Amino acid sequence: MTESTxxxxxxxxxxxxxxxxxxxxxxxxxxxxxxxxxxVYTKNLGMADIVQGKPITSNTVFRIASISKTFTAIGLMxxxxxxxxxxxxxxxxxxxxxxxxxxDPNAPPVTFRHMLTHTSGIGEAPSVPDAxxxxxxxxxxxxxxxxxxxxxxxxxxxxxxxxxxPDTKWAYANHAFAILGQLVExxxxxxxxxxxxxxxxxxxxxxxxxxxxxxxxxPEFAQGYNFKKGKFDPIPLKLRLLMGAGSVFSSVNEMARxxxxxxxxxxxxxxxxxxxxxxxxxxxxQLDTDPRVFGMGLAFWLEQxxxxxxxxxxxxxxxxISQMKVAPGENLGVVVFTNTSDLAPEFIAxxxxxxxxxxxxxxxxxxxAGILYNPHDWEALCGFYGPRPGFxxxxxxxxxxxxxxxxxxxxxxxxxxxxxxxxxSKGMPIYRLDPQxxxxxxxxxxxxxxxxYPVKLLFEADxxxxxxxxxxxxxxxxxxxxxxxxxxxxxxxxGWLTSMLLLLIFRKKTKRGKNE
Length: 516
Description:
The chain is α+β, with helices and mostly antiparallel strands. It contains 14 helices and 26 strands.
């Protein structure tokens, strides 16, 4: 892309962001674009604090949530570069105050690589009661003030039990990255936040970012909001006990310096944090997944925008949503923050990155035209798909897909996906994406916060060519017969309850008739 074309694209982003701000009803929005190591574009809209009349600026501090995981991984990989551990070493050899265990004493050990790729067997919470408490809004992983912070070993009471064997399934795990933060501390001999400030933030010139809510960040901190019933409701600040998973406070100006290092082999004009080959490894897929559907490096999520590799991460905490995307091959980076509980940053960051790369955003031309549907394939694709066992490691799949997805042919004679609950409960048509690939499909969610969100599906077959699994978003789920489907079990349970209710009504009427 020529310089004049690039400048023209940047000018067009202004109008797009105004439209997005109005479409998503955000309290505030901060956007930054980095090119060749420099912040070349910023846009700040709305309010950091509505009551105080404080506007968003490029120095406004947001909670960047799970983008923090990439920082934690970089701090850890610095120690790896120093020969302090190997990626496939068991983490228990380095933990000093607690151990990661499985109920089976013969289970394979959990390694650093497992934790960095969310394949450790750790689920949504340390226990089922903890997971149920999260559902009702009482998460032990949050604290009121910095004075309430306790050591992680005390929080886990000396042990953290995994749910399934490592390397058997992918499950997003905040607690894995909390443990990685503890490993940084135990291996380095420094407290985790002190290590990160000294070895990551300060070498990058990020002097107003922190893992703790300190004077480095609170003067410019934004208030978080929910928009409901026509107004913005402020959300009280609660701090994360799991520092390594999502505690960083930062701004667009500070994150621009971080992205500059990510696209320049680990260094920016202020200093170096990693060797180029280490950073490249972190942005190389560690899993056997199709990059068009899902890729996972060491902490970094990997995507394909056309032929370009995009590395990044998003984040979500009450009142704050964040998204960072970096195209190392083009020396481009985009960061988007909002102080509103809305998924807008994912849509906005993707649209801006596509424009900067000069590639049409596929969601703006969906469904794709000029591809033969091949309806004779559909019978093999149809059926019920569910995850491998594990309540805690399936928690997010349950919340999103209700525990099972069904591929079926809808009334419009189009293949579609539906679930018992959630955004797909009414069915989502799916369409072939690639004329050369009969197994790759995509749908688009409609309604709610995820309206317009693309959902890719990759069907997989066994050696005999029978479709036996499906990759939907980052989840690999497996085909099951109807007799074992969750839908049949729910129908059977509803049928039984209906029968019992009718029987109860019949008995009451019979008893009333006898009394009369």
